[in-house]
Design a protein that fits this description.
Largest sheet: 4 strands, antiparallel
Strand content: over 45%
Oligomer: single chain
Order of helices and strands: HHEEEEEEEEEE
Strand order of the largest sheet: 2-1-5-6
Low-confidence stretches: none
Shape: elongated
Radius of gyration: 22 Å
Amino acid sequence: MGAGAQRYQSATRGGNNRAGFVEALVNKPNGAQMYAVIKTGGKQYKVATGDKLKVEQLVAEVGQEVVFDQVLAVGQGADLKTGTPLLAGASVKAKVVSHGLHPKVRIFKMRRRKHYQRHGGHRQAYTELEIGSVAA
């Protein structure tokens, strides 16, 4: 057996690689945490209670509670309820943590041999949310 194979076996035997797995079991007992798929800003996000995520900028003050009623699916463990397309009566409450700008995306256009160059950039605005509760 070569040195590479020995390193692979020792890495997959479960030394420190199991720490993340054990932590997941401790934080989510029996995998029964309720989650939802919401739609906002033309995108879909899978969220659970306590998650923090950045979405397209919302018109809301920092600290304000926002309710998302466009819920596509709600699940808990192996149980999943889906809507057609939206799930009636389901909602997700979130608190606005902050507003900000994503890192700059550089834009550079050039035509070779024509002395044409254009430089530009863009920073997309976002709202950071902390998910409070998921109601089915």
